[in-house]
Amino acid sequence: MAKNTLSFVCQNCGAAYNRWQGKCEACGEWNTLAEEDTAGGVPVSIRSKRKGRTFALESLAGKSPDAPRLSSGMTELDRVTGGGFVRGSVLLVGGDPGIGKSTLLTQATSMLARAGHRIVYISGEEAVAQVRLRAERLGLSDAPVQLAAETSVEDIVSTLSEGAVPRLIVIDSIQTMWTDTVESAPGTVTQVRASAQALIRFAKKTGAAIILVGHVTKDGQIAGPRVVEHMVDAVLSFEGEGSQQFRILRAVKNRFGPTDEIGVFEMTGLGLREVTNPSELFLSERDLGTPGTAVFAGIEGTRPVLVELQALVAPTSLGTPRRAVVGWDPSRLSMVLAVLEAHCGVKLSGHDVYLNVAGGLRINEPAADLAAAAALVSSLVNAQLPTDAVYFGEISLSGVVRPVAQTPARLKEAAKLGFQRAVLPESARGETGGDAGLSLNAVNSLTTLVAEIAARGSRRGESNAPAEKNATPARFRRGEG
Ligand code: TYD
Ligand code: MG
């Protein structure tokens, strides 16, 4: 006999009960319980009689049509998607309001439409006139993008089912969409989830690629939150410091490509400009000759990126000194500080420490340890580091400088940008990939590097500037080793 799978489900929070009651105990809402079949929506009478359909099983080696991609014509965008939009895939672009999501997508869609593809842009947030105004400002109003200001998913799906299947559909934003199939208001979790589901079904059925725009809420999650993230094929996040012109597009999840690539853009009066050589951009406003800055030779995905790390170490009167970091992992900073204290004899407990990655870039690599340590010590002893040097290397808890991947690529980029020296892990010396034209300073322990920087500080202190005397290595006690 078929088991009874009917239960009472709260339409507000999704809690299920086997008896009706006036108030949902999970969320406290009144009158929200409705009877639902939790076995998958097929009526019991049909389900019990339905005989299972048979399907063919296939081998792994079988031929599947490879995922044909639609290249956007924007190199930086294609780099992040892994070579273009995959047919039938759904991509979520998240970011703070005003960061430039609509601008980016207006530019990408216009270029595709100009190339002869059927491209549809549905705006749920702005009126058609506003979207036109933006396109005009970007000099793209002649592009044959098909435009509409709509929010009903059913209407959108019916309209798009007519005529040729669009190659790409932009939904700006998923939070404004609503579907008849659920009762809750637009923007709620249930609506966002149901709307996204309907659009994903449409994409899989027709082969059109869909881009959903999602706003990030204050706590950094995409509202209608995260429910969409696991449903889509790729999640891109568009980030940047509000005050700066640089915008970074990063893949958070990608079923069809890498997740460590970044695309770099600059917001100008005429829209987003692609930045093909980010190192030049991140180093363009370098403060040459200031203590506390070190250039890190990093890798983002397949591309080397040089960026300046800035540190400020200042005496504090606070019982618990401040530790603030922008663009790097705070626990990584704590670790580097602990190693400096424990193994190199650098006393930092009486100092506030600030660390900043210039240009609004966010670094995830442990290879930045050495550059961060160099910047911190340089600030502490008030000794400027050589302006023509780059730093990279991971620091272990024992104070050993460990090798990192892709040494040749880092050195090549540094040489290309006119750097003369590199401070790198001793064990990486063998894999420099031939002479990159840099003079190499291989260090095997952090103590060595600290001593070198301290020596620069003392030389400086002796020669001039008595005011800086108290900023010389007097602050160092000899490390126990
Ligand atoms: P927008 O794409 O509307 O952001 P989002 O869709 O992520 O909310 O971009 C908004 C900001 O970009 C706005 O503050 C103005 C700025 N902007 C420019 O600086 N230059 C431009 O050419 C455009 C179109 C916008
Ligand atoms: Mg927008």
What does this 3D model show about the protein?
This protein has 481 residues and is α/β, with parallel strands linked by helices. The protein is 26% helix and 24% strand. The protein contains 11 helices and 23 strands. It has helices at 44-49, 75-81, 101-114, 128-137, 153-161, 189-206, 278-282, 330-344, 369-380, 407-416, 446-463, and strands at residues 6-10, 16-17, 33-37, 69-70, 85-86, 90-95, 119-123, 146-148, 168-172, 209-215, 234-239, 246-254, 262-268, 271-274, 293-300, 303-315, 323-326, 351-357, 389-391, 394-395, 401-402, 421-425, 439-443. The strands form 5 sheets. The protein has a 9-stranded mixed sheet. Mean pLDDT is 84; it is low at 39-46 and 461-481. It comes from Bradyrhizobium cajani. Belongs to the RecA family. RadA subfamily. One of its GO terms (biological process) is recombinational repair.
The name of the CATH topology of the largest domain is Rossmann fold
- Helical stretch tally: 11
> What is the number of domains?
3
How much of the polypeptide forms β-strand, as a percent range?
Answer: 15-25%
The count of β-strands is 23
Give the cofactors and ligands: thymidine-5'-diphosphate, magnesium ion
Q: Which blocks of ≥5 consecutive residues have pLDDT under 50?
A: 39-46, 461-481
Average pLDDT level: 84
Provide the CATH top-level class of the largest domain.
Alpha Beta
Provide the CATH architecture of the largest domain: 3-Layer(aba) Sandwich
Shape verdict? globular
- How much helix, percentage-wise, in residues? 25-40%
Look at the helices and sheets and give the structural class: alpha/beta
